[in-house]
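Section handout 9: paired folding examples.
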Amino acid sequence: GGRYDPVDDYFGAQDYSFHLMMIIYFFFTVILMLNVLIALINKAFEKGDDGWRLKWVENRLRYIESAENLSYNIPGFRKKYDIFPKEIYFSIPSRPIKDYQSKVEENNKKEEEVEVKNNTEALVQTLRDQIEEMKKKQNEQLSELKQLILESRRAPEP
């Protein structure tokens, strides 16, 4: 069956410290390897568990679709029996709806901020243009007033 004697005489039966260290080493190695194995199995199980709900919804849709399509082949069946509704409603928990609404509101707020910013910039530019026009008119009026004052001082009255 093989030889079971120690590799060296130093590792004989009287050396308890070596055997104790080997027992501790193997014990922790086995625990570590079992933990790694459990982690791998858990990861594989989670990966396989992710798609079951989507697959269930797809199968349910296929079943409803096939049931509706069966009634199309019978002449006059859908006119006589109004079994299926015009719309099929899908129920969803409230949390994803709230998340979606918050995203939509956030996007709308961002769009409004951009629009307000653009409108503000346009308004500021319009006001600047109006101020420039008013300055030009004031300068023209001021130059006309200066001209009138100069003319009134030059011309003596008889």
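Moving on to protein 2 of 2.
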Amino acid sequence: FVPSVSTTWHSNDDDVYRAPPIDRSILPTAPRAAREPNIDRSRLPKSPPYTAFLGNLPYDVTEESIKDFFRGLNISAVRLPREPTNPERLKGFGYAEFEDIDSLFQALSLNEESLGNRRIRVDVADQAQDKDRDDRCFG
């Protein structure tokens, strides 16, 4: 005995199941920049300057290459300290200042991304500690 089997999956188009669109930002293969950075927003400065510390920079980095790295963000200034004994040589770290908090937040999502041949560190520059020291002096 062979039962009759229908060869169509479904005949009524109206209630065909449609999967919701996939939120690609939660997939593990999403590029780091597409994911929400794992940053505690309370660590972000409440007011300007919105400065990021940049660590492990290649020694041949330029202001232009930093601006290019943060392409699309509102970057207002780049500071690249140099060795006092050899002004040609960079110290391997720097600071990028952003015009708004969202640009700083987006910049932090680029932590560990490659610039040149190095994975650079992007973190909130420690301004709070400087302010605390100043407050204690007057306290």
